[in-house]
Automatic annotation (TrEMBL):
It is a multi-pass membrane protein. PANTHER family: PHOSPHATIDYLINOSITOL-GLYCAN BIOSYNTHESIS CLASS W PROTEIN (PTHR20661:SF0). Belongs to the PIGW family. GO terms for cellular component: endoplasmic reticulum membrane. This is Phosphatidylinositol-glycan biosynthesis class W protein. It is found in: Endoplasmic reticulum membrane; Membrane. Its main location: endoplasmic reticulum. Keywords: Acyltransferase, Endoplasmic reticulum, GPI-anchor biosynthesis, Membrane, Transferase, Transmembrane, Transmembrane helix. Its EC number is 2.3.-.-. InterPro entries: ATPase_P-typ_TM_dom_sf, PIGW/GWT1. It comes from the Eukaryota.
């Protein structure tokens, strides 16, 4: 078998992992985020100042070591003990938080009930997008790691995309990416449509041209370089950039004529009708078993074309969640209620998923069926809940320690503007890798794709040792992060559309 054939076989015919293992991964990123904040707080307490010495270098190295490195290890050499790793990190975080609390609390106000009650009554600045940005960033980062890691043998095959049915970590990544884009779309942010609906739809058609260009670029480069392809993923000519573009246009057309506040109902109708069609017609049989790729464009790209329906449903669900979480709230207890509602929504959807997998069929990213829709949204809500809790823990630690410049989604509300504090906070945000990726997310995704292709073209990824593979992944992610970090530090946003 040729080298290309070996690589294609390496990522084909996989069955994924179980739902609890994918859900377990939702806890790692939030804990890493907390640990980064706690390290900064401890340094501030010890030295009385932030940022760190040699800030441009030290903060990049800190963020990469505490946030990116554990994510790489968790899907490679530590994947077999992920549960133990997460529990250990949580225990360390809990001990540090307790230390900060005992060190900074006055003996007369050290009663836990009093402290928690006072914290819940606190007011926060709500002009920032809460924890949604962090969700989108981590989805992007995990995607960037996975698209190269999957080509190495150190990456567990159960995490890779499944062939037809199953729940791989990368399967969730695709649904989460669509969901993340919907959270911050104009409709979710309640932006008024200017002009006629026809003009709005035309504007949305024009706005996706970068995705179409990127899709065409990937198609041409793959065909010209004889790069390995997993045809049953999207088809012969289709790729994820085309899916993102079509989903955005279709969703914009729907939201131009239907109220965004009913996105959840539209979402359920779309996925319900699609699943009904799969069950009552020959569509499922056509997508899975018809291998006549040379007949026409539809046969060649059936997975990519028909899966758009499921992704549109996921997108519409994301719009509804975006509308909910972006509502202005001023008190910590209001945000806590919001987080608990997200957790409850995840529980309900996971219950529905269990019923669907029992009575209908398993999760299938290839079909983008009803169970895949339920799983993608349920897992996204769980991940958002975990990230929101992490930010709340950071807010509590910041309030207790008096170190308010540590980057997080929320800041305590200030009655008067403090120019020195605002300047310090702005400086810390400028040195934050999470903010850097958030600033140029599409560029980060594109850069990761380009570097993945380059890496595969210059080395035999299948025969690399585990230690060498991890080193390559670390170097790859560091170069991605370095480029994005420098652009952010210089205040450059790469957006030409």
């Amino acid at each position: 078998m040729s080298q290309r054939g070996l690589r294609e076989a390496f990522i084909s015919n996989l069955n994924g992992t179980n739902l609890p293992e994918v859900a377990l991964g939702s806890f790692l990123s939030p804990v890493c985020l907390i640990n980064r904040g706690l390290i900064l707080i401890l340094y501030h307490q010890a030295k009385g100042t932030l940022p760190l010495p040699l800030p441009l270098i030290s903060h990049l190295l800190l963020d990469f070591s505490v946030i990116i490195l554990p994510l790489i290890f968790s899907c490679t050499i530590l994947s077999s003990i992920l549960y133990e790793v997460i529990i250990s990190l949580i225990l360390v975080s809990a001990c540090v938080i307790y230390y900060i609390y005992r060190t900074n609390s006055h003996p007369s106000t050290r009663h836990p009930k009093t402290t928690v009650s006072t914290f819940l009554q606190s007011h926060v600045q709500f002009n920032q997008v809460p924890f949604v940005t962090v969700f989108r960033v981590f989805v992007n980062v995990k995607t960037a790691i996975s698209i190269l890691a999957v080509d190495f043998s150190v990456f567990p095959r159960r995490y890779a995309k499944t062939e037809t049915y199953g729940t791989g970590v990368m399967d969730f990544g695709v649904g989460a990416y669509v969901f993340a884009n919907a959270l911050v779309c104009p409709e979710a942010r309640r932006k008024n449509i200017s002009g006629s609906k026809v003009n709005h739809i035309t504007k949305q058609l024009l706005s996706v041209w970068p995705l179409v260009v990127l899709g065409m670029g990937r198609l041409v480069s793959v065909k010209m370089t004889d790069y390995q392809e997993h045809v049953t993923e999207y088809g012969v000519h289709w790729n994820f950039f085309f899916t993102l573009a079509i989903v955005r246009v279709v969703a914009s057309m729907l939201l131009a004529v239907l109220p965004a506040s009913q996105s959840w109902l539209i979402s359920l109708l779309i996925i319900g009708l699609y699943q009904f069609t799969l069950e009552t017609s020959g569509l499922k049989e056509f997508i899975i078993h018809n291998n006549d790729r040379e007949k026409d464009f539809l046969h060649a790209n059936k997975e990519g074309i028909f899966s758009v329906v499921g992704y549109v449903a996921i997108y519409m669900a994301g719009v509804q969640v975006g509308l909910y979480v972006m509502q202005p709230r001023s008190q910590v207890k209001e945000w806590l209620k919001t987080l608990l509602n997200l957790l409850f929504g995840s529980f309900v959807l996971y219950s529905a998923l269990y019923a669907c997998q029992t009575l209908v069929e398993p999760v299938s990213r290839r079909l983008s069926n009803l169970p895949f829709f339920l799983w993608s949204v349920a897992q996204s809500l769980l991940f958002m809940f975990c990230l929101g809790v992490a930010d709340m823990v950071l807010l509590f630690s910041k309030r207790t320690s008096g170190c308010h410049s540590v980057p997080s989604s929320w800041s305590l509300h200030k009655k008067q503007s403090d120019s020195v504090s605002d300047k310090k906070t702005g400086e810390m945000e400028r040195l934050c890798l999470v903010q850097a990726v958030s600033r140029n997310q599409l560029l980060f995704f594109l850069l990761a794709n380009v570097m993945t292709g380059l890496t595969n073209s210059v080395m035999d990824t299948l025969n690399c040792s585990n230690s060498f593979s991890v080193c390559i992944l670390l170097l790859y992610m560091f170069m991605n992060c370095l480029v994005i970090y420098v652009l952010h530090f210089c205040g450059i946003t790469v957006k030409f559309w």
